[in-house]
TrEMBL record:
Sample GO molecular function, one term: calmodulin binding
Lineage: Eukaryota, Metazoa, Echinodermata, Eleutherozoa, Echinozoa
The species this protein was found in: Stichopus japonicus
Identification of the protein by name: Putative ras GTPase-activating-like protein IQGAP1 isoform X1
BP terms from Gene Ontology: mitotic actomyosin contractile ring assembly actin filament organization
GO cellular component: cell cortex
Length: 285
């Protein structure tokens, strides 16, 4: 990186370039190693608070620690460590040698959880806790709290949009009902949530597009030409039944009459009010 100093003196322009050297200090591997060992020792003692304090050590460089999950961290890490120790001992037996037969063959992480393993288990605990919260919130039908849970980094869902909160609630409730009918566990997993979010986003966009299309149609009924109205009726966003351009004048006159009577032409039963009449009439022309 360079810092350029500009100095003006005696009508002459001088440029002096000062080189600034930045040193990026690497993480102290020894400190990380010590912090990881301390975590393993706390896990062995099955001391929830001690384990959480060790996890919070800045030298451990662990991410997304949540106090509410401290007991689960202890339980999951203890189980993972026990499993690793059993696996290592079984491997040693198969090889007909002891793990520490030779000093040069010793590896402390044969029985201790590594930094990556600790972080992986922390992340898994956070995900499971957040999934439980989402499934619980579906019972309360609180769209605002559900949205916040879906937006949590612990789940890592993509394309969660605040304006679609009600759609997420409805779609997820339906997804859980379907899963309940087909599996023993009705609880939704991350993949289920992402699929529901994607489906809800599509549905929300279709509804908004249709609402705008109906609004444009209402404007054209009053202010546009018959041709303008037919073009709007035929737009895919309106999702209307077949439209017959050769009766454009009829569309405008009849829809204008309906609008004057009702205040606006509304979306009813998969079509605009009165559209079924036009279809039947046009088929006889």
């Amino acid at each position: 990186m360079f810092l350029v100093l500009t100095v003006i003196s005696n009508s002459h322009l001088y440029k002096s370039t000062v080189h600034l050297l930045f040193f990026q200090l690497s993480v102290d591997d020894a400190a990380v190693h010590a912090a990881v060992i301390a975590i393993n020792e706390a896990v062995d003692k099955q001391d929830v608070e001690g384990t959480f304090k060790a996890l919070q050590n800045p030298n451990a460089t662990l991410k997304n620690l949540k106090g509410d999950n401290r007991e689960d961290y202890q339980n999951v890490l203890y189980a993972a460590k026990q499993s690793k120790e059993v696996t290592t001992l079984n491997k040693a037996k198969r090889e007909k040698s002891t793990l520490f037969a030779k000093r040069e063959e010793q590896d402390v992480y044969d029985t201790l959880l590594t930094h990556a393993e600790i972080q992986g288990n922390v992340t898994k605990v956070n995900l499971d806790a957040q999934l439980n919260e989402v499934n619980t919130l579906l019972d309360t039908q609180d769209a605002t709290k559900l949205l916040a849970a879906l937006q949590s980094p612990a789940i890592g869902l993509k394309d969660v949009q605040s304006e679609n909160a009600e759609y997420y609630l409805t779609t997820l409730i339906q997804a859980r009902e379907v899963k309940k009918e087909n599996t023993e566990s009705p609880n939704l997993e991350k993949e289920d949530l992402q699929a529901a979010v994607n489906a809800a986003n599509i549905l929300a966009k279709e509804d908004r597009d249709r609402t705008k299309a109906v609004g444009d149609i209402n404007t054209a009924i009053s202010e546009g030409s018959p041709e303008d109205l037919v073009n709007l009726l035929m737009r895919s966003e309106a999702t209307l039944p077949e439209v017959f351009p050769y009766v454009a004048d009829l569309y405008q006159s009849e829809l204008r009459r309906l609008k004057e009577s009702n205040g606006e032409v509304r979306w009813i039963n998969q079509g605009l009010a009165g559209m079924s009449f036009f279809r039947e009439f046009a088929e006889y022309l």
